[in-house]
Write a structure and sequence with these properties.
This protein is α+β, with helices and mostly antiparallel strands and about 90 residues long. It is about 35% helix and about 20% strand.
């Protein structure tokens, strides 16, 4: 899974977010998850070195073939692409 950042909170499953450091929508999803108080992991793919970036992109493409950001993966079962509050809440059961 590579080196990811961890944000503590309530465990609502294993939440992984693929993001870009410069992406406004990615920042909104991070803030939204933090505001919901849920635990999650994220990686700003653009800040990683070439080798690690390719590992993260390979994981991302499994869930989101268009490789767009942000992409949230919940429990290796569900995927939410973009900043969609309703879909995020539904996927997390909050």
């Amino acid at each position: 899974m590579g080196n990811m950042q961890h944000v503590g909170g309530i465990n609502k499953g294993h939440i992984v977010m693929y993001a870009l450091s410069t992406c406004v929508w990615c920042k909104r999803v991070k803030k939204y998850l933090t505001d919901l108080g849920v635990e999650y992991y994220y990686v700003d793919v653009d800040l990683k070195g070439e080798e690690e970036r390719s590992i993260h992109k390979a994981e991302l493409v499994k869930w989101n073939p268009s490789c767009s950001f942000p992409t949230l993966v919940i429990n290796n079962e569900k995927c939410v692409v973009g900043f969609d509050e309703e879909r995020i809440r539904s996927a997390l059961g909050v």
